[in-house]
Task: inverse folding
């Protein structure tokens, strides 16, 4: 299946901004994150088709996954 | 009509009428200039807050709020003056948030931060100066606000917010503004606000990036957002924070605070606004409890 992956803010560094990528059916958000070498503790918002999801969310063909880093500063 | 019953020395009804008459007489086209406001304070032994409250109750606008007028009506200005808002964290975000709330005319601010200024704060924290390094951030905030809007009372609390002292620190506030730099403390703040039925405006920053949302009791937006994963810090640990990111995010937080206090406009309820100042992009995420 094809999933559009969008990376935001510091996640773009050394990776990409947006890419269409092929994954096996029922790949989870966690598997995509691991494949991109993004440390889990840096993850903030994870969105599939503009809605916030959890790491164990399974992706479907045609989904758009967006990943934002965790921001905590004040 | 608002009666400033707490005017000192004595609040006999006759004297109040006199203050009201005086304010009506001194206002020009509904505007009360600062010199005349000062004169009313001296003449009637009232605080700045009391004169502003009396004036606004009569539909007279203290001149300092003239440019608020198309955004905030006189009635709204009185609501803001009578509002009590807690700002938790008085660093990068908190400095700008306190400054903007005071200029907007929010009458009572409770500012909570245990820290003193250090040299690495000088690149962004509004109240930090070489001259006040080592001094309490909340004390600097109090000094600044007293100088810029004497109608505003700032209660400085040099304490670390937590779920134990939270209910006491937030007692009587209508709204809390999150300017913290710790994710676990943010989650404690969200729980305390939930228990006390207080809406919460959230902001967080790292490097070029920031985010804002507003949660009302029952929404549990922050709990959803941070999903029980509790590293103390986010990517700001690597990225640091430049001068402009806290200013931008704090401005958005104060706009949200203004709307919540006045019950006007559209807030970021169940919506997270993510801001990338490097690429100048805004993204909105719909947040539902999970």
Result:
């Amino acid at each position: 299946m094809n999933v559009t992956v969008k990376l935001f803010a510091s996640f773009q560094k050394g990776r990409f901004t947006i890419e269409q990528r092929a994954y096996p059916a029922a790949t989870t958000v966690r598997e995509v994150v691991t494949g991109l070498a993004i440390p889990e503790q840096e993850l903030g918002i994870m969105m599939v088709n503009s809605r916030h999801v959890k790491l164990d969310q399974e992706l479907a063909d045609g989904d758009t996954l967006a990943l934002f880093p965790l921001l905590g500063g004040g | 009509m608002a009666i400033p019953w707490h005017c000192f020395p004595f609040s006999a009804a006759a004297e109040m009428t006199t203050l009201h008459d005086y304010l009506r007489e001194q206002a020009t086209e509904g505007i009360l200039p600062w010199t005349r406001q000062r004169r009313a304070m001296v003449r009637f032994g009232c605080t700045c807050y009391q004169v502003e409250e009396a004036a606004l109750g009569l539909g007279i606008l203290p001149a300092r709020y003239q440019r608020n007028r198309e955004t905030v009506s006189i009635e709204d200005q009185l609501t803001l003056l009578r509002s009590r808002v807690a700002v938790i964290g008085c660093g990068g975000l908190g400095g700008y948030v306190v400054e903007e709330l005071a200029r907007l005319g929010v009458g009572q601010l409770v500012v909570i931060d245990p820290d003193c200024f250090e040299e690495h704060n000088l690149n962004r924290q509004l109240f930090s100066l070489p001259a006040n390094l080592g001094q309490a951030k909340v004390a600097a905030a109090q000094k600044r606000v007293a100088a810029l809007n004497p109608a505003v009372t700032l209660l400085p609390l040099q304490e670390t917010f937590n779920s134990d002292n939270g209910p006491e620190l937030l007692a009587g506030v209508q709204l809390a503004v999150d300017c913290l730099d710790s994710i676990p403390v943010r989650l404690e703040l969200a729980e305390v606000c939930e228990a006390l039925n207080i809406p919460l405006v959230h902001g967080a920053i790292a490097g070029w990036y920031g985010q804002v949302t507003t949660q009302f009791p029952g929404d549990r937006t922050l709990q959803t957002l941070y999903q029980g994963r509790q590293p103390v810090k986010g990517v700001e640990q690597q990225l640091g924070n430049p001068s402009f990111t806290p200013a931008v995010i704090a401005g958005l937080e104060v706009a949200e605070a203004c709307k919540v206090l006045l019950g006007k406009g559209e807030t970021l309820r169940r919506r997270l606004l993510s801001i990338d100042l490097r690429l100048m992009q805004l993204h909105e995420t719909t947040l539902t409890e999970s």
